[in-house]
Amino acid sequence: MAALDYLDFDLEVEASGTPGSYQVSVLSSPRGEASGQMTFPFNPDALENVILKLGRTRSGVRALGSPTQQVAKQFGSTLYDALFAGEVGTCFRRSLDEADAQGKGLRIRLRLNRAPQLADVPWEYLYPSSLRQFLVLSTKTPVVRYLEQPRAVPPLTVTPPLQVLVVVCSPTNLATLDVDAEVARIGHALAGLEQSGQVRVTVLPHASLADLRGTLRRLPVHVLHFIGHGGFDDHSGDGMLAFEDDHRLAHLVSGSALATIIHDQDKLRLVLLNACEGARQSPADPFGGVAQSLVAQGVPAVVAMQFEITDEAATVFSAEFYSAIADGYPIDAALAEARVAVFSDDNDVEWGTPVLYLRASDGRIFDVANQGTPSNAPHPSDQPVAASESAGARVIPVVVPPWPSGPGDGWGGGAEMGSPPAGPPPAVAPTTQLPPRDRPPSGGTPAGGPPVESPPSGPKWAIIAAVAAVLAVAVFFGWPYLFPGGVPRVTESPTPTVPVSPTPTVPTPSPTATRRTTSPLPPLRAVPPLKALRGSVTIDGRTDDWQWQLVSYANNQIAGKSDAKGDIYLMWDDEALYLLALVTDPGHYPPDASQPTQIYKGDSVLMELGPDKSRLEADDLARPTDAFYMFGLPASPGTATQRAILGPDGKRASFEIPKDASTLTAAIALTPTGYVLEAKIPWRTTGLNGIKAGVVLAGNVSVSERGPKGFGNLGVRSTNPQRVLNVRARPAYWQALELQP
After folding, report:
1. What angle do CA 613, 617, 621 make, to 5 degrees?
2. Under CATH, which architecture does the 156-368 domain have?
3. What are the pLDDT digits (tens) for 82-134?
4. Which residues pair with 713 in a beta bridge?
5. The two domains 156-368 and 462-483+529-739 share their CATH topology (first three levels equal)
6. So where are the chain's domains?
7. Rounded distance, CA 288 to CA 282, Å?
8. I need a surface site. Which of 59, 329, 415, 583 has the fewest CB within 10 A?
9. Per-residue pLDDT tens for 566-589?
């Protein structure tokens, strides 16, 4: 879709002398001016209640038409009716007609400088009942928080690549953040743009304020993306961001101080704040928040989050938003595109989480030239490569997403594995880094986790080329959040398990493992690990004994076209690995009970599990202790959960050999929206010995969906964004599985 031109609808809200009463003025529009009075329709308690409901999407139903979306509609409709009453509403409707007649969009520029007490209202949910459409979910009617400044903001001509600096802060004395997953998600989202030379991403881990200043001196940054803690100081009326000091402790920096530091960065046009309360401001000062301070000091546009945003929504948002920016869209049009993309991903209300603060009059902060530079072009810095990630900023390499799957209906051997296209795999650009930081490195593992094989990349992008081209899809990964409650109770008799051996060792792969290199393989990429918490549970259909820390989200489409997704939880003790999957699946279609080795062709959950993969290469084949543990819906009500184990065949190139599954214990409870699986995999069954805290294994979890007719597999979604069919017997492509204390 081509970017729209916009007409402006400037709407100012000004507090009056009467509490709860406001003057509303249309300062300019395609159909002239207008004015009216607004009585704000929510008292403080009612507004807080709505904000709490809209901000708790992590634990809510994420389907369209959910109760949360109904709250958003009711709130947005009431707010719209109050704001666009009388002449103001008439002027708005006529302006919409005029914009349509000119083939343009209508940009709603909301000015709240004179009513700062309304700044924390989620205006992004404005919902005209007559249009039956949230305004921000149409690229024709973006809503922006407009902060007018004396100096004009001309667009900056940018020849690709667009330089994106990701600033990562996770002080050790604040709550731990999964910054690795966040950085990986951005890399995934922008992999396609990096491949085409439109975007280049630089990551600044463990960032201090001095690190940021030094990097801005050495690198022409167009977009700054902050990941870390944020807050609001009610006493000073200023927003705060938590950078790191020399000891990796929190160094709180006010929005006004940060704005002063970046004031002279003329090439910096956009700041994206992924920090709590980044969009909050003082009820007495319209420029008191972090985002507002940055705009006041010259940044043309700031996107901040008014609520916490889930991994899936953030991934879709980043991919579409940065893509539209690189395509030359005005910032508000790009944001509208990103909101629609989040909504289209069956997301009920999170499209309203981002807030855009704008001072560019026409929303255009970049003029992007059409030509791109090669993806492996040298970095502007010609300094030596830094020794480690923690020593300085690094540039995420260009990584081509996996080969597409071939024909077939799922996870079986032979033709079902699919065949990659002819020709060698595309080249992978080398990793480059900026010079080491001035301050000495402190202890700890970089970015809060173990070293990874290669920098991360690649979400839900389609890269299509002609002739000897590659069609590839890489999908996104999630970060932890809490599940709020239990599920319907279904009890299934557990099967006894054999105690684990007290002093075994974990098998390690042989450096000379059998390989098959006749088919080209996609490049190995670093993907976020799975993590299992230590603790014991009983497999009885009750979930109240689980520790509700989400491990991952099985939403990466790796085969077919499945609508089934799953929240994945893992725990472990000396006896077994425990799996809990909360699956959203539109139908309940069990596997064929007469084909126990093909459980994956029905509604099922599959755990791939094996030893540590860190010494494996891409073309190493499956090892004897690698296996698929499959759990399917009961064949009929009242019968047992279907279970099976598949080991590698004689050539170790597929998983087709059935193993004794009698030691597996599982229970499934059906729900109106899917099902809940609870399963136990004894260590003795796996052959993985020496189990203790800190051990790293290899594994993936996938959700498989069957259609209503026959036993054909509709598709599979995995926790692993690089898990495609032709690497099913290549454990090097699996995720790491960390056994945590």
Report:
1. 80
2. 3-Layer(aba) Sandwich (3.40)
3. 999 999 999 999 999 999 999 999 999 999 988 988 988 999 999 998 888 89
4. 706
5. no
6. 6-146, 156-368, 462-483+529-739
7. 5
8. 415
9. 989 999 999 999 999 999 888 899
HEC string for 598-667: HHHHCCEEEEEEECCCCCCCCCECCCCCCEEEEEECCCCCCCCCEEEEEEECCCCCCEEEEECCCCCEEE
The two beta strands, 604-610 and 627-632, are antiparallel
Q: What is the DSSP letter of 195?
A: H
Domain 462-483+529-739, CATH number (from 2.60.40.1190, 1.10.150.120, 3.40.50.11030, 3.30.565.10)? 2.60.40.1190
Task: Identify the three-state secondary structure at position 686.
Answer: helix
Distance CA 422, CA 304 (A): 44
In this structure, of 200-204, 209-213, 481-485, 629-633, the range with the lowest mean pLDDT score is 481-485
DSSP-assigned letters across all residues of 368-380: E-S----TTPPPS
How many residues does this entry show for the chain? 741
Distance CA 531, CA 547 (A): 13
Query: Both tokens of residue 88?
Result: 């103001």
Asked if pLDDT for residue 422 goes beyond 80, the answer is no
Rounded Cα distance, 727 and 734, in Å: 9
Q: Is the pLDDT of residue 724 over 50?
A: yes
Instruction: Work out the average pLDDT over 309-314.
Output: 74
User: Which of 520, 345, 538 is closest to 422 using CA atoms?
Assistant: 520
Opening angle at CA 15, ends 120 and 241, nearest 5? 30
Q: Using an 8 Å Cβ cutoff, are 146 and 302 in contact?
A: no
Query: Tens of pLDDT along 473-530?
Result: 333 333 332 223 333 333 343 433 333 333 334 444 444 344 544 458 888 988 989 9
Question: How far apart are the C-alpha atoms of 48 and 43, rounded to whole Å?
Answer: 9
d(CA 148, CA 135): 22
Contact 412, 653 (CB under 8 A): no
Count the helices and strands in the chain (H runs, E runs). Answer: 10, 34
CA distance 446 to 204: 11
Q: Which residues pair with 168 in a beta bridge?
A: 227
- Segment 267-295, tens digit of pLDDT: 888 999 887 644 444 444 444 468 878 88
Alpha-carbon distance of 386 to 432, in angstroms, equals 8
Tokens of 218: 């050495």
Nearest to 559 by CA among 718, 393, 666, 699: 718
Closest among 10, 12, 256 to 114, alpha carbons compared: 12
d(CA 609, CA 720): 13
Tokens 């799922």 identify what position?
A: 410
- At which residue do the structure tokens 């396609």 appear? 192
Residues in CB range of 58: below 8 A, 6 or more apart: 308, 310, 481, 482
Is 513 in a helix, a strand, or coil? coil
> 229, 230, 224: which is closest to 261 by C-alpha?
224
Neighbours of 413 (CB within 10 A): 16
Q: Which residues of 557-581 are buried (b: 16+ CB within 10 A; e: fewer)?
A: bbbbebebbbbbbbbbbebbbbbbb
Cα 650 to Cα 431, 516, 657, distances in angstroms = 38, 13, 9
Q: Quote the CA–CA distance of 351 and 340 in Å, as a whole number.
A: 7
Cis amide prior to 708 (ω within 30 degrees): no
d(CA 167, CA 228): 8
Does residue 463 carry a pLDDT above 80?
no
Residue 61 CA: distances (Å) to CA of 139, 151, 579, 676: 26, 45, 22, 15
Q: What radius of gyration, in Å, describes the C-alpha atoms of the chain?
A: 27
Whole-prediction pTM? 0.51
